[in-house]
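Q:
Just now I want nothing more than another pair of eyes on a protein record. Here is the record:
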Amino acid sequence: MVSAPNAGRSVIEFLVTVLIGMAPIACGLLVLVWQVDRKQEETIEVTAREAVYAIDRVVESLHTTSRQAVELLGSPCEDVLSELRQTLVRQPNARSLSLEKQERIYCNTLYGSTDIAMAADSYINGRLRIHTSNRATPDTPILLYRLQANDHAVITAANLRALQVELLGFQNSVVLSLQFGQQFVWATANGESYQVPNHAENTIQLISERYGYTVHAGYPAGESWQAVRQAMQATLPSLLLVGIMTSAAASWGLFRRERARPASPQR
């Protein structure tokens, strides 16, 4: 029969051994969680920067088209309409070009001579705006790019699809959305902030230095835990093996070897 002192000592030895074995497991899990979180942050930042680069290229193409039409400003619409349409044909992302004077569009490639009011202060930095409804395609929002020259301006319109195609090109779990004032665009649709797909985890915002729109990037709720769980499933068996080996080494080094040592002879 095991005496009470020996039983108590065995329990203490067992607990100490378990705690020692748990230490590398706990440390390994903490490092794992930190690595997953760090990797997600890096992925989000890289994706957001690449998105800014891709969208800037689309807007730059609209800027180039608008710049080519600047020389037509001030001329009567009937004199420059044909050349304005030829300029439009050379840009696949653009769907219409307009000439503006004193915030009123007086010439458009779709309608010819016209008179439509356009407030310059509705554009981001006086350049970009999402127009949610238009006469030509009422159910298709468009992106407007405005290039001002004194009291005149050229406005290039493009379907939002040009932006969404760029967002669809990112093949990872990061949710991207573009903000133009109060309007948002994401890979499959557009709308206001409450309609944007969930990207509540590790969200960052980057503003285009050239054009002033904002890129929002983040993971859907629960994505971080899913990544941690997958990493744990791959790593936990190795951590358990390390914990068992550590416990065995600690038990032998601290307790078993001491018991195996022969007692000193009494004089």
Notes: DSSP finds four helices and eleven strands in the chain. The mean pLDDT is 82. Residues 44 and 217 are 6 Å apart (CA to CA). The radius of gyration is 33 Å.
